[in-house]
Amino acid sequence: MATGGNAIRGTRVGSGPMGEQDHGYHADRIAVSYWDGLGNETVRYFAAGLPDEEIPETIDHPQSGLPAGRDKNNPPELAKNEPYKTHLAYVKERRTDDEAAQLLDEALTQLRERRGQA
User: Fold this and answer.
1) Nearest Cα to 45, choosing from 68, 62, 60, 28?
2) Can you list the positions of beta strands (E) in 1-118?
3) d(CA 69, CA 60)
């Protein structure tokens, strides 16, 4: 078995006597609450010295995926989704054969004019 250096078995290479204070866990911070359209609250922490302009007004709520704002009484509105359209709804929107033929003729004349074959 080959060993090298002065690493002790079971230790990570590069680990040192760093405590939580060295990682920044005890830095002064402020808590900012955000609410989404369903009334869910999430709290984000920012550095205490951060100017108020740099704290975002809206974020994406991590659990619901909806936009969330800092104003509890007026959260961002929920996205309005279009209702699912059935096949029959698409069939009703189709053009008649006469309208389709007219559109095709218009498109062909425009194409011929561009090519100079009028």
Assistant:
1) 28
2) 29-36, 41-47, 58-60, 67-69
3) 9
Amino acid at 110: Q
User: What is the reported pLDDT for 43?
Assistant: 92
**CA dihedral over 83, 85, 90, 91, signed as positive or negative:** negative
Instruction: Give 105's pLDDT tier (boundaries 50, 70, 90).
Output: very high
* HSE value, Cβ hemisphere, 13 Å, CA-based, for 21: 1
Sheet holding 29-36, edge to edge: 41-47, 29-36, 67-69, 58-60
C-alpha–C-alpha distance, residues 25 and 84, integer Å = 48
- Give CA–CA dist 107/37, Å, rounded: 47
- Predicted confidence (pLDDT) at residue 22 exceeds the cutoff of 80: no
- Contact call for residues 49 and 28 (beta carbons, < 8 A): yes
